[in-house]
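README: folding subset

This subset contains proteins for which both the sequence and a predicted structure token string are available. Records are stored as plain text. Below is the entry for Uricase (226 residues), shown exactly as it appears on disk.
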Amino acid sequence: MVRSDTKHYVQAHPSVIQYAKVKLVEVQWDRIINKDSKGELKPHHHAFVQGGTESRYAIAEARLTSPGNVDVSLSAGLSGLRVLKTTNSAFEGFRKDQFTILPEVHDRLLATAVSAEWEYAHPNATSAEAAQVRGILIDVFAGPADTGVPSPAVQWTLFKMGEAVLDRCPFVKKIHIYMPNIHNLPVNLKPFGLKNTHPHGEIFLPTDEPHGIIEATLTRTPSSRL
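--- output ---
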């Protein structure tokens, strides 16, 4: 493909183009492997994670509270965790006014780059606990491997991801999640005599801008004292 594309430019426009260089970049997308509705580990039907983009970190803070006493708090996080669902995502029924230009969509690609930071309830957290939080975020985003889970909005999915972390990880006090929308637009293939088939298209162009800035902080409710 890259060879024929490169030849096309110099052959179709020889009066203005005598040299062309085309570079195609392949990005690694791996199917998320998680449990299906029967509890068996399987490759996911329509959810993926992109390799090589994620970074993880830990933050420790020490505060001298009194002579000889040090209070230590520990947080951890991740950024650049790119995930994608090819179906089971919608955005419709939202509030509109005279300036709304975004159309409602019953089914779409849902792609985002997850950044999350959480505060531990104790200062002795382990890498296994951090891995557990990451696994929950991915698992709730994707849903069961065989069926997935409907997402009526990125905001809803983000909330469910954070809620699940607090429900399943008693060692987490609060979590902040940032999930910008990475829109994927169907490519117009008519100039090539091709149809971008399927009602939702098969070839998409990811765009960085514009995008919605979607983030939330979920905090565990302190236990009441009698």
